[in-house]
């Protein structure tokens, strides 16, 4: 008898790769006027969002602004 059921959701049931890279692409365009091709954003997959955003922010204030905007673009109201 099984006591635990484990689901591997990301990459099997759903794929968040496009959502994550596209939302960051949109954030960078809106906030920094940077046009970054989606394929150049694949490095963000598998690392914490804060680490990904550090590559594009010049200071802690901008980092927090970009993180907030990115999160809002991932899950729009």
UniProtKB/TrEMBL annotation:
Chain coiled-coil ranges: none
Superkingdom as given in the UniProt entry: Bacteria
One Pfam family linked to the record: HAD_2
Gene3D superfamilies according to UniProt: Putative phosphatase, domain 2
Organism field: Tetragenococcus osmophilus
InterPro entries named among the record's database cross-references: HAD-like_sf, HAD_2, PGP-like_dom2
Name this polypeptide is given: Phosphatase
